[in-house]
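Give me the fold.
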Amino acid sequence: MIGTRSATRQLWIVGVAVSLISAWLASPATAADEAPVTHSTLPSGNDDYRTFAAYEADLAELVANHPDLVKPLTLPYETSSGRDVQGIEISRDVQADDGKPVFVTVGMHHGNERPSGELTMEFATDVVENAGDPRLSRLLDNARLVVVPVVNVDGFVRNRRQTDTNVDMNRNYGFGWLPISTGGPAPWSEPETRNIQWLLSTRQATTFVTQHTCLQVVLYPPLQLEAGPTQDVARFEDLATRMAAHYGPSYIPRDSAHDYETTGEAIDWAYFATRGLAFTAETCPDEGVERTFETQVVDTYAGHRAAMLEAFENTADPDQHATIRGKAPKNAVLRVSRSFDMYTHPYAQPDGSTRPSSFPTTLTSDLEVSNKNGKFRWAVNPSERPIPPYQHDGVHGNQTGFYTEPWILTCERPDGTVVQEQPVNIDLGETTTVDLTECRRRFHRPDRSTP
């Protein structure tokens, strides 16, 4: 168990080494990297890396040209240097509040890993431009895709791995966080990290993929060996294996701890908070192959597309989430929420002790009932939350159980007045019908104050 000053220092040294190696692997393009592409087969037809302005323009163009399929998304926190972080949502009748399960994929946690943003953006373009394809059409009917191609905007603009506060945002997520040199002054200290926290906390993301370079792996939690396998290791292995196979025979699916141990990454928090499957997909040309736009983006895209379609289909699979259904008044707002504490790794505190720090986590999602008959189906992540290895008194690895923490479902008027509230316990693959008779009875009746 890592819980001493010495162990913390060892992890700090490892963090520095990993950052240096990763920065070298994802270093800015050399003159050879800028060789022109002989033939671009990308959905966009691009033959070179986008600028940030080009990302913004391409996202806006998809929204303008396909308003029934695409709507804009601006994450709530500006970057440290005051820039917006933008993405899009894609689905059939995208403006509808339809309760579909959600697939979230993002690029460029590390601002100099340019192929990660390109692959993410190209997949969004592909899905939109080819929405009539039978496979894509079915997925868009049954799930929602959220794409944020550049989450570390400042790092991308400056062509550097870290944010403008010199923090590796993929070491700043609170769950299991340690004060390594690149982890930030505190868990969740960076607005870029809090953006992803907000995104996954407000959407029922069955699947989450964060795209990186430059290795040939598909990684999943845990991040540290002492944590032990997750409760859903079989589900992780299955999907990671299928994704890796599409990228190529040299790609390896494995838990992140057996690749190299880190702390404070997105996938660890995402899984243990939401129970949605979360992956780090690292792509890279074969050893000895020159790293150019063509080899890192054009030649990689076909495998990336197939891997992302596996993740998209996992999202739509009813066995990979839970479903709440029922009948409510038209225009009622349904809300599910739950709150709990999560913990960092133990680390040296100002008072001289070594212990974890806690941080609150709240998951909340809304659904406006739009059908005239009031019927709804809502895909949610299970209320059964995996017992995490990081707890209030230290690290307890190899957990096999789950906390039973019901969703609190409220039925509300549009003005926010809660008309009915009830707990909903639901596990993976289950469908439950909620009785909202009280909400239907009271929804259109004015509340009378007591004289």
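Residues 79 and 192 are 6 Å apart (CA to CA).
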